């Protein structure tokens, strides 16, 4: 056993509070990691779905934009949104595009 100069043990004993409480109050690290992984998977799928909707479709009817966003533009009504649209720019700004 390691001891200090005054003979007290160093680091071998479990603190009394942990002996009484155990570690159950800390929660299971495995369940926390699985919940975090599920959340990451769900968010990744949502971002992929948004990206699949907001894709370039070519020039608009008036020739103003080289590429228009498929989800944001309304074809036939002359309402074109240049690609990358605000949605894709937000994803890019946060490194998710």
UniProtKB/TrEMBL annotation:
It comes from the Bacteria. This is Uncharacterized protein. It comes from Mycolicibacter arupensis. The lineage of its organism: Bacteria, Bacillati, Actinomycetota, Actinomycetes, Mycobacteriales.
